[in-house]
Task: structure prediction
Amino acid sequence: MYEQRIDRQHPGAIVFLVDQSESMGDGITGMPLTKATTVADQLNGLLFELVQRCTKAIGEPPRPYFAVAIIGYGTDQNGNPLVGSVLQGALADDWWAWTTDLAQHPLRIEERERAVEGAPPQKYVMPVWVDPFAGGGTPMCTALDNAGRLVRAWCDEYPAAFPPIVINLSDGESTDGSPSQWADRLRSLHTDDGNVLFFNLGIGGDDKMRLFDERAPSTASPHTMLLWEMSSELPEFMIEVARSQGFQISPGARGFGANADFRNVVSFLNVGTSVGHLLR
Amino acid sequence: MTSVTYDRLGVGVIATIGVTAIAVLVVPSLGTDWPFVMAAGLVLVALRSGILAVRTATGRTVPPGARRRPAAGSSGQHHHRAPATSTAGPVVAPSHDTGLLTTRVLTLSKHGADECENEDASAIARDGHLVAVADGASSAYASGEWSRLLVERFVGAGPAPLSDGHEGFVEACAQAWQDVTALEPDADWWAVEAQRRGSYATFAGVTISESGEWEASVVGDCCVLATDAGGELLSAFPLERPEQFTSTPSMLQTNDPAAGLWCRTVGHMVPGDALFVASDGLAEWLLAEPGDRLSWIRDAGATQIEARLDQERASGAMVNDDVTLVVVRHGRGESDG
Result:
């Protein structure tokens, strides 16, 4: 299980569910940024890395080894769920965006500088696909239902592929009911290589920070407990990646985090998307 | 060359007919035997003219025990890499036997991938006395070019390829990679970033002396396996068991020539012995059952090997990776035996 290499015949699928509720506009611990900006920056960085991983041959565009869906969820002024793809422009027509298309259709390309030891700063370009947005409620059930339909079709189309990874980034409780049963349905979907991996990260909050717990955080708030219950166990190779980043975790550790600061958001996404070694 | 051959043939045929006619006139005892004299003369002419030499090069008329010459146009150095265009089936070079050593090369791209996506490379020079295999990292940019440059430069650098130091060798290869991958100013952002990040490959280079002493220099998990005439594993380097293979081997890097962790070992070949220089996926598979698999792959036909390795990779019994193998066999073992 969770061993299938990723190639054109067996592409990888990653779905990000991004909470766009009002409170995502609040600041995050560890950086002078809002939670929404932090999430957008990290998603842009991840997409950049995915595209680079698929750039293999001279004179050839990045290969279509991954499809990515970024589903934003919030509500309108009347509280009605607003769930849709965050990707814009040429990528807005489809829920999925292949790495080949992501490379060619960012929203814009920004020029930035990176520090180089003993030399002038080096200029580089940073494509941007996702801009921060915050407003309204947290219709998590609708978002999970939407993700489930997408992922189910994917598993039907690529039954031998590595199973899709669904990552939910949220800062609050669901406002359209308990997402528990939707999470169960999502995790029950599978390919021949294993069940869908559903990881949850609660961003911000005043309670104790948690990441990759293998035991239920029974003393934590009901919301934190729910996030843990909804989350899949990390496959062995993701546990290894987490350990290499300094986390002392055991088999059974879940793709779960709560009350995350900036650093934990970065670590969580690095571990939860660490499928680079599966590329062939 | 062809015109020279036929010019010689024409002159020879005319001369043979003329000489036969004169002989019949001068030596009456030849009588009715003159056709046999002329036929013998024509055969001699054909041999001299190279007509039979052409047949020899096809291999059909090589008598048992005779050694095949290098292919026409060979400079004595052979590179084996997936061709630039897709082809069906494996790239398998014929056995190459020039005296002490016999070499054989097999390379297959990943099951389900095009041949042009093969990121392994191998090279052989000096009649098998220099051999190299490299395995480009799958997630790196232009890693097929990187592995090709490493093996080509190893076997093309003279009898002691690393005499100027490991770092100098990698640095020269890295410069060549920079030249090969240089971009136009208006290149796409992903290509600029990929070229900046550079490429990675594991590597194994082997030198074999006239007396059979061999030395292997390895970075990462390309492996050198030594067997005796019976196919029994004598040594495996640098990894000895399948469970030692990981997803994070040491690699040679275009951006940091000092980065690879070089390992070195030496050995001695006697007649019948063989060295297997293999990329990691195949080495891991061979080491799982070395008793059966090493002698099998040494002796099996190319089609047979391709079919089995495809099956093993499709079933998951073998990791679905590019496969490259160079087998160097101490040739005198076969003729002696």
